[in-house]
Amino acid sequence: MNSFSFTKMHGCGNDFIVVNTFRETVPEDLSALAQDMCQRRFAVGADQFIILGSAESADANFRMDILNADGSKVEMCGNALRCAAVYAKREGLIQSDELKIETMTGISFATILEDGNVRIAVAVPSTTIVDVGLDSEHPLFGTPLSAEQYTFPMTAVSVGNPHAVTYVDEIDLLNLEKIGPLFEHHEVFKNRANIEFVKVIDDHHVEMRVWERGSGETLACGSGACAVAVASVLHGVAKSPMKVSLKGGDLEIEWEGRGKPVYMSGSASFVFDATWSY
């Protein structure tokens, strides 16, 4: 029997299994491994599975690859970036509080702050058809989108991965188990999408729930919070800096406007270290 060590972490309740392949050897079929380990109640349980290893770019400190609980690959994840940063510092992969993490979408810049939170330069957001991955002749910008009996005005935003944002009067009453999959798999999204439902509290504060592509409803989604902030600024319903409240906690998002990167600040927490045998 073989085994490897891993660490359980979370960012605002968005939880991850983190494996350091600088030190550990894992099975070749990472998709099957992620599905096995991410099962709740029957295994470790997590929203996503993170692999840290050598970067292809000499400019990055290391590479982070991510798989969803269903085994599908993820371009990037804001909460995972924060967790990877503090994990790397604890494990001695970096010495500085400033680092560069390579993902499928390129290199993200992270800073570990004095209070232990992490500030990430997530991406330069885009609303174009190509960047979001839309099977459409026009971008989605407050555009009504229907699935079965549900219709929501959707704004599609890419922050390295695809999101669709909609505004509602009440988020707590939504049946996300029913609604989420319908829009995640909507035919307009070539590679599926993360779906965010947002309630505006005031000019600098919004609340959201998220249905994550490949994971279902999660307590937090960092890239989703960034997409929500971008959409809210573009629609003029809220301003930067913006507090985005999720089920698992609050994130602080900053965005100066088109052509500028979106920044996210928030916590990253260790849960436990353990060993997986296979």
UniProtKB/TrEMBL annotation:
Gene transcribed to yield this protein: dapF
MF GO annotations: diaminopimelate epimerase activity
Active-site residue numbers: 77 (proton donor), 77, 221 (proton acceptor)
Record keyword ATP-binding present: no
PANTHER family: DIAMINOPIMELATE EPIMERASE (PTHR31689:SF0), DIAMINOPIMELATE EPIMERASE, CHLOROPLASTIC (PTHR31689)
Family: Belongs to the diaminopimelate epimerase family.
Biological processes, Gene Ontology terms: lysine biosynthetic process via diaminopimelate
Function field: Catalyzes the stereoinversion of LL-2,6-diaminopimelate (L,L-DAP) to meso-diaminopimelate (meso-DAP), a precursor of L-lysine and an essential component of the bacterial peptidoglycan.
Enzyme Commission designation: 5.1.1.7
Keyword Amino-acid biosynthesis: yes
Chief location: cytoplasm
Subcellular location: Cytoplasm
Protein name per UniProt: Diaminopimelate epimerase
Subunit structure: Homodimer.
HAMAP family: DAP_epimerase
Positions annotated to bind substrate: 14, 48, 68, 78-79, 161, 194, 212-213, 222-223
Domain of life assignment: Bacteria
Keywords recorded for this protein, A-Z: Amino-acid biosynthesis, Cytoplasm, Isomerase, Lysine biosynthesis
Annotated positions for site Could be important to modulate the pK values of the two catalytic cysteine residues: 163, 212
InterPro entries attached to this UniProt entry: DAP_epimerase_AS, DAP_epimerase_DapF
